[in-house]
Amino acid sequence: MLIKVCGLKESQNILSIDVLHPDLIGLIFYEGSPRFVGKNIIPKTTMKKVGVFVNSNIDSIIHQSEKFKLSYIQLHGKENLSMVKELYNKGYRIIKSFSIGETIDNSIMQSFSPFCKYFLFDTKGEKAGGNGLKFNWQLLEDYKLKTPFLLSGGIGAEDIEPIKKIKHTAFAGIDINSRFEISAGIKNIELIKNFINEIRK
Asked: Which of 6, 51, 72, 143 is the most buried (most CB within 10 A)?
């Protein structure tokens, strides 16, 4: 199971997370987020970096990808299929986020499927992400495509056993964020350490 720790922005905090060996970290390049990376210095890590973008233009995405040596581009807004195709054709690995409310719409996702390494299912909310809310995980049974997905939205330390019970063949991993914070963008290291140890047992 892949573990992605998203919304990191402070150098020492990132290095402390690196020691815990999650698979991915998320760096948010959306100025409207309290977890916006801004001009912070991002240290070298053993973890693969995911750049999270919300309705950015392609030039900006490419610039940040090269600057921060991103392994994945996560599109977390209303990016259209032509943008996803263009980034894919330029060699970028794409994670496309879908906000889940009361249904999972396979028909919309299907057109994106050939160009995405993963989908990410987050909870529909007022903000683009980091709302700290769960959607109904039983809806995952309605997902019929083969593109692997990461589960996001309000995951906390109490969700270890429910996560382990998810048996969907396309379930690839989890994305944790706001429920593991001291403040926006600063993670609670001990809480994440315990969570990772338990989830990997």
From this structure: 6
The DSSP line for 93-126 is -EEEEEEESS---HHHHHHHGGG-SEEEEEE--S
Segments of the chain with pLDDT less than 50: none
DSSP code, position 70: -
Q: Which amino acid is at 192?
A: I
Q: What is the pLDDT of residues 79-99, one digit of tens each?
A: 999 999 999 999 999 999 999
CA distance 9 to 185: 6
* Distance separating alpha carbons of residues 122 and 131, to the nearest angstrom: 9
| CATH match for 2-199 among 3.90.1310.10, 3.20.20.70, 3.40.50.10300, 1.10.760.10 | 3.20.20.70
Give the type of residue at 136. Answer: N
CB 160 within 8 A of CB 180: no
